[in-house]
Amino acid sequence: MWNERIAEEIRGIVGEEDYMDAPEDRIEYSYDGYIPEAMPEAVVLPRRTEQVSEILKVAYREGIPVTPRGAGTNIVGGTVPVRGGIVMAFTRMNRILELSPEDRYAVVQPGVVNAQLQTEAARHGLFFPPDPASLAVSTIGGNVAENAGGPRGVKYGVTRDYLLGLTVVLADGRILRTGGRTVKNVTGYDLTGLFCGSEGTLGVITEITVKLMPLPEAQRSIQAAFPDLDGAGKAVTRIMASGILPVAMELMDSVVVRLIEEATGVGLPQEAEGVLLIMVDGPEAAVIQEVERIGELCREHGASEVRVSRSTEENEALWAARRSAFAAMARSRPTCIVEDVTVPVSRLPTMVREILSVAQKHQITIGVLAHAGDGNMHPLILCDRRDPDEWSRVEEAVREIFHRAVDLGGTLSGEHGVGLAKEPFLPLVMDEESRRLMRGVKDLLDPKGILNPGKFV
Amino acid sequence: MWNERIAEEIRGIVGEEDYMDAPEDRIEYSYDGYIPEAMPEAVVLPRRTEQVSEILKVAYREGIPVTPRGAGTNIVGGTVPVRGGIVMAFTRMNRILELSPEDRYAVVQPGVVNAQLQTEAARHGLFFPPDPASLAVSTIGGNVAENAGGPRGVKYGVTRDYLLGLTVVLADGRILRTGGRTVKNVTGYDLTGLFCGSEGTLGVITEITVKLMPLPEAQRSIQAAFPDLDGAGKAVTRIMASGILPVAMELMDSVVVRLIEEATGVGLPQEAEGVLLIMVDGPEAAVIQEVERIGELCREHGASEVRVSRSTEENEALWAARRSAFAAMARSRPTCIVEDVTVPVSRLPTMVREILSVAQKHQITIGVLAHAGDGNMHPLILCDRRDPDEWSRVEEAVREIFHRAVDLGGTLSGEHGVGLAKEPFLPLVMDEESRRLMRGVKDLLDPKGILNPGKFV
Prior knowledge:
20% strand; 15 helices; seven-stranded antiparallel beta sheet; alpha+beta; five-stranded antiparallel beta sheet; homodimer
C-alpha cells in the first residue's frame, strides 16, 4: 500500500526534480492512446539504470505496481496504470550512448525518440527500419516493449528483427544484460526476444542495442487509384507474388483518403474507392525498373491513375500524409478506434470485404487502412463513445472483425500489442497451453505481480 | 530407469518399424559432429505429433531422458544423449505439409532437409534464407533448434528471422501451438522465439511454419585474392561501410584455400594470404553496379586478383567449394575442431591476427574461415586428439581465442550453439542473472529435466 514513507523513499532515490505526485501531474500519466484512465500515486522520471533498480527494490518489497512508459502513444491501454502505484516515464533517459557506423549498431536509452535515432543514423548513411506511424514522438523503449512495426515491415520486418541486446531491470531490482553487439549470437535462450513485445510485464528495459541498416541509394513511391477496392486488393497479392519486395505497400479506402486529403491537401485521388501507396528502395537503376513493373501490374488490375514520386521531397510528402491518417481520422468524430487485425496477404481482399460488410451491417463508419504488403490492417472505427447505442454496435463490430480475421488464418494484433484492449480476445489466437506457459513465465519473472499489473497476462 | 516394460510401452506407441534398440542402431545415434559419445537405450523415429506426445508422457512419468535429433550435423555435441534414454530422430517426419506462394510461407515437419525445402520453394520463385554449410543434409528442425545461420546471414539474418510459428510438445506431453502464419504478430510473449535456439532443452518441435522470400533476379559472386590477410580484413569493413549489403562475404586464409583447392580443384588462388568470396543479389542492373564497386574497393585494399562469376553455374561452383571447407579440412588431420566466435565486423582484422598469433604461440594449425560480413569466424583447428600434448595445447588455444573474442566485444557462438562444447565458457558472455533466468525457464518448462539433459542449462 502506498503511503507517505514510501513516497519519501522513492523521492529520495530520484530527487525532487524527477518525482511528481501533484494531481495535475498524475492526471497527465493516467491515460494513453486508448480509452481507459487510471491515476497513479506518483510519477518518476529516472535518469540511470541504478535508479530504476533502486525504485524496483522498494516497489518489490512493498508490493507497489510499477508501469513503465515511453511516449504513451500505444492505442491498447498498455501504459494505463490500472492498479495505481508508480508510473516510470523514460523522458529523461533519452540519450544515444553509442553509434558505430562500421559495425552498424547503436546503443540507446529507452526514452530516445524513434525519429531522433533516425536523424542521427542518417548522418552516417544508416537507418533504423522500424517506422511506426508515431515515430516523431514514440520512443525506442516503447517500440521494443510493443515489438512495433510500421509500413516498412513488408521488406524490413519489425523491431525484434533489429534488436541485438538489452539491459533489463527485473521486478526485484536485479539488473540483467542480454544479447550483445553482434548480429549472430546463439549462446543460450533468446532472453532478448522474450522481453521484446512483453509490454512492460516482465522487466523494465533501461538500455537497448539495435542493429542499423545502410540507407538505400534511392527511394521511389507510386500512388495508384482504383475504381474498386477489390482491384486494389488483388493488385497487392499480385505484386507480392511478382518477385518484387516493396519496402511498404499501403492500402487506403475512400473514407481514409477523403479525411487525409481534408487534413493535408497532399493531392490524393478523391474519386477512387481504393488507393495504393507503394514504396520501393535500393540502387537507383533497380528502383526505376521496379516502379515501372509495379505500375504495369496496377494498371492490369484496373488502376485508373498511377503517379510516381519524382523527388525525395515528393516521396516524403506522400508518406507524411499517410502517417497523419490517425490524426486526420481522430478529428472527424469524438472517438476513433484503431484496430490491428492481420491476415495472410492472399486473404486481404476477402478481409476488406468482410470489414465493409460488418460496417454496413452495424451502420457504423469504418475506414480501411492497411499495411497491405504484410496483411496488417487497421480498420479505423469512427464513433462517439458517449452514445450507448452506437457504442454497443461498435463493440459487436470489433468482435465480428476479430472472428473473421482469425477464421481467415490471421491474428488480433500485428504491431499494436494486447494491452487492455485485446486481452478478452486472446483465447481466439492462443491455446490454453500457450496462455498457461505465458502465465508461468510471468510468475517466474514477476512473482509478486508488480510490473504493469492488470494487463493481458 | 529404463527397463523392458518401458521399452515395450514405447515400442507399442511407434510400432516395431520405428523403434530400434539393437546395439548397432544405438551406436549410430550415440554421436554427432563433435567429439563425445554416449549410448541411448533406444531410438524412436516418430511419424506424428501425437506419437511424440505419447512418448513424452511415458518419459515424463518414468523420468527417462529424451534427446531430439535432426541430421546430427551439429558440431557442439548438442544431440549426444549424455544421460542415455531415448533418442528421438525426425527422419520420418520429413514432409512439406503446405507451401503458399502467395503468402510466402511453408509449413514443414522437423525432418525436412533444408535443401529439400529450397528445391520446393524455388519451383515457386521463392527461397528459405538460412543456409548452413550443412544444408544438403541438415534438417529444418535442427536449424530451428540451433537458430542456424549461414553465409547469407549478412543480408538475410538467421533462422529466427524466418520463423512464424511452431508446434511444440512439452516435457509432459502437452501440445503447444505458437505464433501463426502472419509476419506481424504481437499477441502475447514471443514463445516461438523462446524455443528457437533452445537446443531441444525446452520442448520437442514437431511442426514449423517459416517465411519464404522471393528469389532475386540475379546473383553474382566476386573472388578477390589478397597478398596479406590484413588487407582482406580491411576490405571487409570498408565494403560493409559503403552502403552495399552483400548477401554473403566469406574470408578464407591460405590454409583453408589450399585444402579446399586440393579437395575440389575449383580454381581458388593459391598464392594469396587471404581470399574473399563475396555474393550480391537483386535486380540484374543493380547487381552489376555493386559487383563493380566491390571490385574497386578490393583493389584499393591491395587485392591482386579480382574475378567475377559470369554465370549461375560458375557462381554455384564457387559456393559449393566453400561449403566443402569443413569436409576438406576434416580429411587432412584426424581431428578437426570448428570454432564459432563472433566479433563486431570492425574488429575482424584484429581477431584474425589474434587467432594467428594464438596458433603460432601454441604451435598448432588453425585455418581461418569467416562469415566476414557479420563478424562470425570459424577458426578450424587441425590436430590429433589422441596426442595428449597436442590436445592440451589445442584446449589452451581455444580458451585464449574465446577470451580474445569476448574482449573485442564478441561472443562464443554465432550460429553453432552451446551444446556440450561451449557450456564451460558460458559465464564469459552471460551474467549470473541471465544464467539464473535461463535455469528458471528450463525448470518451468521441464521440471523433471528429461529434455536433452546434461547440456548447457
